[in-house]
Hints:
Elements: E1 7-10, H1 14-25, E2 28-33, E3 47-53, E4 58-62, E5 77-80, H2 85-96, E6 100-107, E7 112-118, E8 124-130
Parallel strand pairs: 1-4, 5-8
Antiparallel strand pairs: 2-3, 3-4, 6-7, 7-8
Helix pairs in contact: 1-2
Protein name: PhnB protein
Pfam family, one: Glyoxalase
Domain Glyoxalase/fosfomycin resistance/dioxygenase: 12-125
Amino acid sequence: MSGLSLYLWFPGTAAEALSFYRDVFDGEVEMHTFRDFGRTDGPGDAIAHGILSGPVSLFATDTAGDEPSVSMEGASVALLGTADGETLTRWFERLSVGGTVIEPLRAQPWGATDGQVVDRYGIRWLIGYEN
């Protein structure tokens, strides 16, 4: 496997977040708890390793001990041209539920359509496609 993979550390909400992203991207989720891995550095039912597979893939975990959780400043996850316009529009709308639209998905002066949203988990997404 090659390419960039996103791995997110959540403050005890990894299972909820992975389920949300599964529904957003129509993917499949696999989750393993701290208990499954024999880990004692966090709650047994916390997610030690989760995988979203599908058109958008990512990994997630719950923080252990005093690890910091995900915080996005000065960065975004770019899904530019990764699917057709209809699919990207659907993903934008789904990510917006409970989140904050930074810039609505709309036609831009340079001829593409794009927009930005921070989802309910604080992840900033840049979504766009060529018209």
